[in-house]
Amino acid sequence: QSEDQWQQVDAYMAEKLIAEDPVMDAVLQRNADAELPNHDVAANQGKLLNLFAQMCGARHVLEIGTLGGYSTIWLARALPEGGKVVTLEYSAKHAEIAQQNIDAAGVAEKIEILIGAAAETLPQLQDRAPFDLIFIDADKPNNPVYLEWALKLSRKGTVIIGDNVVRNGAVTDPQSEDANVIGVRRFFDMMAAEPRLEATALQTVGSKGWDGFTLAIVK
Ligand code: SAM
Fold first, then answer.
1. Which among 50, 80, 103, 183 could bridge 143 via Cys, Cβ 3.0 to 4.6 Å?
2. Which structural domain, as residue segments, surrounds residue 182?
3. Which of 147, 142, 188, 149 is nearest to 165 (CA)?
4. Which atom of ligand 1 is nearest to the CA of 94?
5. Residue 20: which CATH number?
6. Spacing, Cα 1 to ligand 1 middle (Å)
7. How far is the CA of 218 from the centre of ligand 1 (A)?
């Protein structure tokens, strides 16, 4: 099957199940205008995150990797009154664009961006734990560090999602010297060995090409 068909099916699904959303369109436009990398989740994936958050009744969400705030806004929209997404972003420029998007989307009171390397900002969150849902979507070499912190900031029932785990199929290559692949493989090894986690992973195709994510629950 061709990538063209994946795109068409994604467009069909989004047209059927995801309401027209000028606010989200404006977010993606602002990201493009600011020349942010096109690494936001797709609309149907953003909605999946939103549904996961609703399904687990999340009030406190942690996101690692904000970019322009697209996935952040999808998550924030799932939260009840008083709910909060704390999102961690290394790039001050990305965080600034994200804040503009968040303000324009009218969800500023539900989102807090912490600027800096996530490995430095995660330890500051210990008095705000536990989080109900944690979305790991930043630099993949640090995925093992992020999983360790996710576990520290979790409770029984916390949902942990890790994005971009297929690496064009290289995830299966134990000889890979790509730091992203090594980080993701270590992330899988840690999940496999961690008795507190029950996990699965899914491959996806669509408007963002061939990719996949892990989904885990803390026991
Ligand atoms: N979650 C976003 C979305 O779907 O809209 C996409 C996030 S993008 C894949 C990854 C982001 O992680 C980039 O904005 C990048 O600047 C950020 N990042 C990279 N290294 C980081 C680090 N050490 N700490 C925090 N954020 C980092």
1. 183
2. 3-218
3. 188
4. 14
5. 3.40.50.150
6. 31
7. 24
